[in-house]
Design a protein that fits this description.
The protein is of the alpha+beta class. Among the domains are: 95 residues, Beta-Lactamase, CATH 3.30.450; 94 residues, Signal transduction histidine kinase, dimerisation/phosphotransfer (DHp) domain (Helix Hairpins), CATH 1.10.287.130; 152 residues, Histidine kinase-like ATPase, C-terminal domain (Heat Shock Protein 90, 2-Layer Sandwich). It has 13 helices and 15 strands. It has a five-stranded mixed beta sheet. Strands 1-4-3-2 form a four-stranded antiparallel beta sheet. A four-stranded antiparallel beta sheet has the order 5-8-7-6, with helices on both faces. A hairpin with a 6-residue loop joins strand 14 and strand 15. The protein is rod-shaped, with a radius of gyration of 49 Å. The two termini are 20 Å apart. The N terminus is likely disordered. InterPro entries: 2C_sensor_his_kinase, HAMP_dom, HATPase_C_sf, HATPase_dom, His_kinase_dom, HisK_dim/P_dom, HisK_dim/P_sf, Sig_transdc_His_kin-like_C. Keywords: ATP-binding, Cell membrane, Kinase, Membrane, Nucleotide-binding, Phosphoprotein, Transferase, Transmembrane, Transmembrane helix. It is a multi-pass membrane protein. This is histidine kinase.
Length: 568
Amino acid sequence: MPSRFPSLVPWQGRSNSSDGLAPPPHRPLSAHGGFRRLYLTLFLSLMAIFWIGVAASWLIDDWREDHYRQRLASGPMALLTSLVASQPESSRDAWLSAYEEELGIRLALSDSETLMLGFMDRRRLARGDVLARQAQGEIGWQLYQRLPGEDDAILVAHFTGLSEQQPLQLVSLLRQWLELSPEDEREARFQALRSRISLPMGMGSGTPPGLSNSQLTQLNAGHVVINVVAERSSLGFYAQFSGGRWIMVGPLSPFESLPIVTISIVMALMLTMLGLAIYFIMRSVEKRLTRLEQTTASFTGGDYNARVTIQEGEYLTQLGLAFNTMADQVQAVLSSQQDLMRAVSHEFRTPVARVRFALQMVDDMSESPGIRRLLKGVDDDIESIDRLIDEILTYARLDSATDGMLPLEPASLEVREIADRVVETLTPLHPQLTLEVTGGQELSVHADARYLQRALQNLVSNACNHAGTRVHVRLLGDERLVYLSVEDDGAGVPAGERERIFKPFARLDDSRTRHQPGVGGYGLGLAIVARIVHWHHGRITVDTAPELGGAQFILTLPRHYEAAEEYS
């Protein structure tokens, strides 16, 4: 496109233009930008969920570690509370003092009031659970458990550290406690103890599985044997009774925190699945909103029969129904207004014709020059009313038509011929102006000849009404589009009015007043142009004329009417 016609491309950098029916291309009422922001918000929300999940995993890991300590402490504490409960109350302090040094564990008896335990802690102790708490102001952990069969006697064991001898001493102590019972009651006592703890324990006879010959020798010699299973990173403790039966405590595995990599991978997979689910749901909603947006654009563009297709069980069904109800009501109101306007306009024609006939009779009967001047003025006014009625009926026909109902007769037209015909018709009416046409040789367009000439004539007439000395019609086209630019050297259209002038009955203020008496518009000329352009799937824009300095109206039409939907 030649550089001297940059303003003929209406959607490149325009800031104030409209066809009065639908928003121009540079101001799309599209939901896509909103959905991009929504997707970004969802992405940021998923990232926030990811980090919240990682923090929750750390908290869960702390809970698992605390549970592991309580599970590990359940065995020693169950044994110690059973041993303490079996001692007479008068000798319990001495027993605790004797075994403190042997086990390397500080032991004491207390009650819940002295220990200032809370309600939940007391409930857990009442159920027989073990409480594990980090020692206040000291190194190590304190374990609490209620003595079996006693309501408020609590054994407190303070572990400052875990040595290799402590589990050995505890397993040896377990064997001693079981040996205090007769052999036929020993297993029942062992099962009663095992029901109170969370550690794996067992009792058997014969040769324990998994022990080497040297370990079996030590076991037969009465020692407590530690068996390390490297493959599973676990420990097992074995002790043998004098009768040949043996007990096993374990296998005990060390606490393993959840690897941060594993947590991250699991969280990433979960968030990916959640994100995909949200994405597909939002895509479905976006498609439906896009269809609603397209229907809304068609409705605001003049297709008052446009409705949203409703499908059973679809998202946004209520929104679609609400839109269709609103469209029905708007269409009914517009139809009533258009019917009223057409009826009133038709009814005006008969009395106007009578008045004109009466004026003609009076004019024939009177020879007075004064009366004839008055009658001429009245006749001019009647002519203006007649033109107004014609304009109203034309606009009503164009405004009330729907797709397929407007009787367009598109054909291949030479644009230059139409422009020359319009200028030839209007030049005698405006002798003080210079009207010229440039460009457009061998430029054709597929359109309705009658309506296209009406649109161009309205634009040129509008320019003539407001021009100072010149009106310039430029014609240009490419493979797809035809541009008809009408420029004048008048006052121009104020930027704030460029959206409004295509509305019916819109009139500018004194910035573009009529220059000639008896020549003026009714506020329907540009509205009719906008409707004609709409039905041809084109666009009308207004800007400042780059050369003449006044107003520049650019009428853009697709060259082929059958493919016009592509450019509208």
